Amino acid sequence: WKKRFEEILRNFKNLSDAQQRELDNMDWWRFLVNNGIPENDLFLRELLDSTDFGESIRHVSGFSALSEYAESSKKNEMDFKMKGGNGTLARKITEHIGSDKVKLGYHVEAIEQKNGKVKVNCTNGETFDGDRLICTIPTFSLAKIKFTPALPKEKINAINALQYARINKHAVLFSERFWGREDFDLITDTSAHYFYHATKNQPAKSGALISYSIGEKADVFGWNDDHLRKQMVLESLRPLARAEDYFRKEVNYYWGSDRYSKGSYAVYGKGQWFNIRPILAAKFINIHFAGEHIADWQGFMEGAVATGAEAAEAALA
Description:
Elements: H1 2-10, H2 17-24, H3 28-34, H4 39-53, H5 62-71, H6 87-97, E1 108-114, E2 117-122, E3 127-130, E4 133-135, H7 139-142, E5 146-148, H8 153-161, E6 163-164, E7 167-174, E8 185-187, E9 194-197, E10 207-214, H9 215-222, H10 226-237, E11 247-254, E12 266-267, H11 277-281, E13 287-289, H12 301-316
Parallel strand pairs: 1-5, 4-13
Antiparallel strand pairs: 1-2, 2-3, 6-12, 7-10, 7-11, 8-9, 9-10
């Protein structure tokens, strides 16, 4: 099976358009079954691969899953972190364009296009006018905005079809790194699901582990209180150590209840990669669309940045 899978990854770039679409029309679970994966390995891949997509591999397009594994580098890009946190990127962009040009706390309720101009109306009564608009809004919020003229029916259908991953991150700070290894991670079949070392290679005695759970497991974490979440994490780590002896504090975020997206990043299901993604990416008169949900490297900040640059070039052209 391992040799067969390695061969599949090597041959990915040689797939014809028809073969790519055939892959897209089945889920990743079915693809693995059809290619002879042993049942025990299938169970383990469900636990592992689902953390890459935020939902069960039974819900993910076979093509979008295979492309992620075939086109990723041998280095795990997710091991690299931004000094000062991911918010550094937003702060640096703000510094570059000027903080007075960045508006926070504004909620768009309507977008009008008329006579070659675009007008954005906000709930606080303020409006913004321009020649072009780049829209990076997640589909959940995009569906709530009134467009004049109205978006094409096929784009509305695509917006309503795309789901976002239910992901919960529960960070726990411990006084000591009782797990021993800097490159520590752990997969479990509990609601805590997957643990990784969040303070890897940072100079401190203390350290943080993050419980990363998806789908129904994320629901269980997200809708419980801190006390129960703490107990779930400690019980999941019990075979490793008495983690409660080192516990200091915790913080939780559940993307499934995020007010703007109702999920973390987009999840492309069967038959969606080639059918709805191009529709979501297509410009509408003078509105250009961007975001991780329409990127080739979908699900990552890299994809969001790349589509933003592409949309800016198209708008300027």
